[in-house]
Amino acid sequence: MNRSTKTWPIALQRIAERALGEQAGQSLWQKYRAAFSAEYRALVSPRYALKDMLNLERITSSNNQCISLLNPGRQVEHYRLHFYSRQPRYLDEYIPVLENMHLRVMDQVQFSITVDGITLFIKSFTIKAKSQCASFAKL
After folding, report:
1. pLDDT score of 12 more than 80
2. In the chain, fewer beta carbons within 10 Å around the N or the C end?
3. Which residues contact 134 (CB under 8 A, 6 or more apart)?
4. Of the candidates 106, 111, 137, 107, which has an alpha carbon nearest to the alpha carbon of residue 123?
């Protein structure tokens, strides 16, 4: 186990406790701490994992789907778009919608998260806006 693998859960715990208060943060962390795979931990920072946990809690209690846009920082020109659902989803369900929004999909991955015997899914896309310059070049 490398250092980042060991520190990721601790960072998530601290972020959850800071954001939600010690008791609520600790409770949420305990519920999800073993739910995230090594692949998820490698791709998603603890800061965004908290956002994912809160959205997964929403769909668990409401039986709806939701989405979240994650901005990785100032020096990065792409975003991560997470779709949360109670069943696995396929690319053909998302690509037409993303293309209609003039978004370019750079990659995608689906995570399955099992918490309290319920499996939930996060479909994660790396996206960026398509350049509109080409359409204006003819003017």
Report:
1. yes
2. C
3. none
4. 111
Helix pair 22-32, 3-20: axis angle to 10 deg: 140
Query: Both tokens of residue 108?
Result: 């995608």
Please, are residues 87 and 98 in contact by the beta-carbon 8 Å criterion?
A: no
Q: What is the DSSP letter of 44?
A: S
Give the separation between CA 26 and CA 23, rounded to whole angstroms: 5
Euclidean distance between CA atoms 5 and 42, whole angstroms: 8
Record the tokens describing residue 139, joined without a space.
């003017």
Q: Indicate the average pLDDT of the chain.
A: 86
**Phi and psi, residue 65, nearest 5°:** -105, 160
CA distance 37 to 17: 21
pLDDT in tens, 81-100: 999 999 988 888 898 888 89
